[in-house]
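Hi there. Long-time user, first ticket. I'm pasting a complex I've been working with (about 456 residues overall). I'd like to know whether the download I got is complete or cut off, because the file seemed smaller than I expected. Thanks.
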Amino acid sequence: MVVTRIIKTAFLFSTLLLSFVVQGAILPEERADVLFHSYDGGGVTIEGPSILVRKHVNDSVSLYGNYYVDSITSASIDVITTASPYSEERTEYSFGMDYLRDKVTISTKYTQSDENDFAAKALHFGISQEMFGGLTTVSLGYSRGWDTVGKLGDPAFAKDTDRENYRASLSQVLTKNMIVEAGVEVITDEGASLNNPYRQVRYVNPANLTRGYDFEDEVYPNTHTSTAFAIRGKYYLPYRAALHGEYRFFTDTWGIKGSHFEIGYTHPFRKNWIFDFKVRSYSQTKADFYNDLFPFSNAQNFLARDKELSTFSDFTIGAGVSYEFDKKLLSFIDKGSINFSINHIQFDYDDFRDISVTAAPGTEPLYSFDANVMQFFVSMWY
Amino acid sequence: MNRLITYTLIVASLILSGCNIEPWVKPYERDRLADPIMNFSRDPVSSSYLHHVYQAREGARGAEGGQGGGCGCN
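Hi, the file is complete. Here it is re-exported in full:
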């Protein structure tokens, strides 16, 4: 909480400070994107559209809207071992505005997301300032979110979660070929259901002669505060191509420590093509109250068996291609592009076991799965 | 708290005095930095989706760049 208080104080003071410094900035580009996304892995398929449209009202105001859908069909390891496969849909709407005044950009966004058992609303605010002749950009952001978690088959179950995000980042031009960005974000959640209310933990029960263990509901703390630090850089190579690198470190009050690094290469080819390649590696330690198999029922105050809270690592290899076309094809636009990307992710869990395999409790094989994430989208600038 | 105020005032003075710093990369030398391939988020609709994919499957969250603010999902 001390860290949160320092961040809050620094955030408020820095916002005042930024108002004294006036340099250059520009509004984001006017463009429209229509994307179809697909995730397939671990018995889960999620697909749907995402449509993002941005239009400038005048030289200082830019409006945008995003419509996003996740159509989910799940027979994940959690679902097949403790529940039944299901299908559901999540729809998210966002509306935002960027306002450029005295070359300072002020941003606001409202987001609303609905599922049949989950609703989320969030307000975002940001201020961004270029300084030192346009070589440095400082950005600050604050978000407030309100979630309501429900449970199908239990109309009385409705638990609220409040969330606050504090963000700060600094983008710095180092040379005529290199730019770096460093950022920090503190997120606090408070609510009576910070977990998925359907998920259960398992505990050893010798009285269960069939499998030797039983299930009971998870119990989570009512608060969660996390801090993430990231640094990323882009380097323009001696020919027209770019390298990028990124590192992020994460820590939270539940005992998880995680980090990832990513490196990538962007290679334009002839006039119209751009190819992207990347690899990304992530690993984390488990939450203090996570256990794949508790020794007995209600073994401790807090109980979790969410594999996202376990010790695990994942590795991504990705590639993308983009073809740019000009206004000869569509006269009402300045330019457009057709894009396709695929990311293959391998997840390996160190202390989450595949209990769909029958074995003595605690000796089942460790769980792993891989997923393919595909995106196809068309973008138009006007 | 006093230490925090002192540090903040030092940083504030540096930033305010820094307004007169001569940019070491001149505006006419920034054509490479302005190339779309040097953008951290060349296609916001795509990067925002990938952040959502990772945020839903990893314990870590935040500092993804861009506007951020979470994915509004469980």
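A couple of notes from our side: The domain at 2-381 of chain A is CATH 2.40.160 (Porin). Confidence is low (pLDDT under 50) at residues 15-24 of chain A.
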